[in-house]
Amino acid sequence: MSGRECEVLVVGAGPAGIAAACRAAECGRSVLLADENPACGGQIWRADRSSAGTPAAPAWLARLAASGVEILPGAVAFEADADAGVIRFEHEFETVEVHCRRLVLATGARELFLPFPGWTLTGVVGAGGLQALVKGGFPVAGRRVVVAGSGPLLLAVAGVLSQHGADLLGVFEQVPLADLILFSLRLWAFPKKLLEAAGLAMAARGVPLRAGWWVTAAGGASGGASEDSARLKWVKLTDGWRQTKVECDLLACGYGLRPNTELAQLIGCRVSAGAVAVDEFQNTSVDGVLAAGEVTGIGGAELSLEEGSVAGYAAADEPDRARAHFAARARYQGFAAALERAFTLRQELKSAVTAETIVCRCEDVTAGRLGEFKSWKEAKLGSRCGMGACQGKTCGPAAEFLYGWGAGSVRPPVAPVRVGTLAGESDPR
Hints:
Elements: E1 2-11, H1 15-26, E2 31-34, H2 56-66, E3 70-72, E4 75-81, E5 86-91, E6 94-105, E7 109-111, E8 124-125, H3 127-135, E9 144-150, H4 153-163, E10 167-173, H5 177-186, H6 191-203, E11 209-211, E12 214-219, E13 234-238, E14 243-247, E15 250-255, E16 257-259, H7 262-267, E17 271-272, E18 275-276, E19 289-291, H8 301-315, H9 319-323, H10 326-342, E20 358-360, E21 365-366, H11 367-370, H12 376-383, H13 395-403, H14 419-422
Parallel strand pairs: 1-2, 1-6, 2-3, 6-19, 8-15, 9-10, 9-15, 10-11
Antiparallel strand pairs: 4-5, 5-6, 7-16, 12-13, 13-14, 17-18, 20-21
């Protein structure tokens, strides 16, 4: 086990974490920025490391490089002792214990997956997951792809797939057309977001967009337990009245994002409406712990940058400099509220789930089995739902939507790590 000390520790190197780290370091504080990925930028800036990407990305990444921030890449936070100001990470097969005076949580968000018959087939991928794979070199040229689910991410994914030569068969958004039009009109109050939306529409031009449609089932080849039968061949969709069946090679399906609150909950931070609750300076309910970005609610990169700036200055004891970002943050919070209203999930999505549909993919727990229980805790104890490799990160939010269950308490480790790491052992190689 090795130890590090710093004045400000930032966990998460997406836009919010980068902004917080830069602001605190530029105030003269010693800052350590840790992230489980090998490079900074988070999911949203994964491929935006040049002027060809989002203009803000290369500027902030260059600023980070010049800031003097110490960066700990590939570090998985798994345990915390808030009273002692300690966060423990697994880094290169070793336990790294970081002592800090202030902690900024910028742990971001993950995709929400909702079960339906066939969602475990090879070829059914999260919308954002497929986008990340394609940015990393996964070949989609000539492959027939359906994009479905909810949220602006669908258009972004469609644009990336089109640029890489995929045969886009359609984007199916569960929100009704009237709600999409109303949301588009509200974007006039946010010129930057309006331009961003126009860019997404241009990138996905020519791709059929069908509002008010959602996935009800996916299937493979018929006839036995062959490898081909476990691979996606078709998708069924409905608008509540009509149905259509589309033959395809890939289904990119996601229903928005959900904040990664596990580390915050482990520390004892109050969570409200699925996100970490903060005050005007991004302070959580735990002294010395701040939170910024999509862990406090889904709002996009611009809001994350403003929240990260406030948190970084607050962590550096510069309240006046933090206040300078309150107005911009408030504007983007208005956009976040409009986004949440526009892309509310319809209750009909629950009807796609049958008794045989697997809800917990790690432990193969079906909806029929979960129907025997009254709470998330009962389901875990009686079926091992949420006790597999993802530790409920996939099935937990799905069960919350389907059954109204809360996730309950969080225990360490909050991420999969080696047993040797838990014991404080060094690299076994």
